[in-house]
Amino acid sequence: MINWVKIIGKRADHNAFTDLTSFNKQLYCCFREAQDHVSVLGNIRILTLDPQGNVQGSTQLALANTDLRDPKLTLMPDNRLLLTAYARQGAIATQPAISRNLSWVSQDGHSWSGVSEFADNGWWLWRLTWHKGLAYGFAYNRRQNAIHLYKGDPRRSFFLHQPRVLSLQKHGKGYPNESAIIFSEDQAFAVVRRDADTYTAQLGRSHFPYKKWIWQDLAMYIGGPTMLQIKPEKALVAGRVLHNNNLVTALLTLNVMTGQLNPVCILPSAGDNSYPGMQQVGNLLYLSYYSSHMDNKSQVYLAQLDISELLNQ
Question: Which of 31, 140, 256, 296 is the most exposed place for a label (fewest CB within 10 A)?
């Protein structure tokens, strides 16, 4: 199933936290370049790739005295690329960081606009999914032990849509955080990571207008989840999972109606790893992620997988 895996990002000491999308018939992969997993400074690297994973272009975004974390790429309804990231400013060890959600746009994938703030400071907007002209995304706050649902256009009007859709206070589920959402007609499905009590991820289901959510425990840990719908009832889920007492990057299938998870494959990975992005091109799946299994150095990888069997099942 795995056709190939190659390193595409290694120039910094720590290369991590990836995302992947397709734009103008090319792949675009973004990730963070920094000194370490948590550091005062962090920049964003955006690579343009051909179908064989060869780097065709490279752009870097940076802000003074700022750690730009977990960049994500989405295609806007007007066919512009949207880049989002979580910006932290401040001496991490000595004072609370100032945290903001930031966005940039590009018409060609190479030149980027000025930066703009959106959503609420202190609430980490993880990943956006566009549906019927609007972007939806969960934001989390560790102290609040909760996630909020936001919607709108991050470059124009973006607002809190529904507070505390999953929280310790309302649902008895501690520290929900990283997330992914997909839509099927007027129904939404979400996978949310948790880092408290059982550490098990949650599957959420909701119908328009996405104010009320029903949650199902998935009985396993999934870090940095991303989702890709391949059938009305089936999605691919990639993220960090526990396998043979080791944290690795894995691809799974998820029946969004029953919550049944099935393993597909484990990508070459170990140590500090995961935070994948996925993009389907016909029968091929491109998957970006990072790992430190080679030379004890955190590097960004791109994998190409043949998913014909999954699409035909």
Answer: 296
Q: What is the pLDDT of residues 113-126, one digit of tens each?
A: 999 999 999 999 99
Q: Could you tell me the two tokens for 55? A: 């780097």
> Cis omega (within 30 of 0) on the bond before 209?
yes
Band the pLDDT of 27: cuts 50, 70, 90: very high
Beta carbons of 195 and 175 less than 8 angstroms apart: yes
**pTM of the predicted structure, to 2 decimals:** 0.96
Across residues 62-89, what is the average pLDDT?
A: 96
Task: Report DSSP state, residue 312.
Answer: H
d(CA 137, CA 144): 17
**CA distances from residue 64 to 54, 61, 230 in whole angstroms, order as listed:** 30, 10, 41
HEC profile of 59-115: EEECCCCCEEEEEEEEECCCCCEEEEEEEEECCCCCCCCEEEEEEEEECCCCCCCCC
Q: Is 212 exposed, middle or buried (0-12, 13-18, 19+ CB in 10 A)?
A: exposed
Burial of 65 (0-12, 13-18, 19+ CB in 10 A): exposed
Instruction: Give 127's Cβ-side CA count (13 Å radius).
Output: 24
